[in-house]
Amino acid sequence: MGPEVANKLLLAGVNAQAISGKQSEVLFAEGIVGLGKVGRVMRVDVSSIDQLLEQRIVPVIAPIAVDVAGGTGLNINADLAAAAISGAYPDSTLIIMTDVAGIYRKWPDKSSLIARISAHELEQLKPIFADGMLPKVDATLEAIAAGAQSVRIIDGTDDGSFAAALEGSGGTLVYA
């Protein structure tokens, strides 16, 4: 998936490179008992990312981590990997793409879209979210807890949503 995304970015004129969180030693994780080769990020080393950014290359990072206990790599939930990396950049805003316009208080009521909410308020609302949105909410809260300034959840199927997010609008903004 990473090479495909990097290639699409290259075709759009963005200098991008696919890397692995394991081979580039960006993500370090411990295994989650009972889930086989699935892990939880324990540490992020952004030096490989910084080297690419200094060369004006956008890294597309596969969510595979170095297993801190040794052995082969561990698979990481992509949203949680992005949250951990975003948290390593204290003034960052993470953009999470999903298949809906943002976080809703009462899904599927489209009028219940939350435009802006604090991480504290979102934590209080967490019990109301269904399975589909819960991993996004967890990743959002983890990114902010790790140090990200904010997270914007947008509809990745809407062609204009990413551009709007880069301009600071659209979707749901969750702030520290």
From TrEMBL:
GO biological process, one term: L-arginine biosynthetic process
Keyword Transferase included in the entry's annotation: yes
Keyword Transferase: yes
Pfam families: AA_kinase (PF00696)
Stretches assigned to the Aspartate/glutamate/uridylate kinase domain: 3-155
Molecular function terms, GO-annotated: acetylglutamate kinase activity
Keywords tagged on the record: Transferase
Protein name as it appears in the record: Unannotated protein
Organism: freshwater metagenome
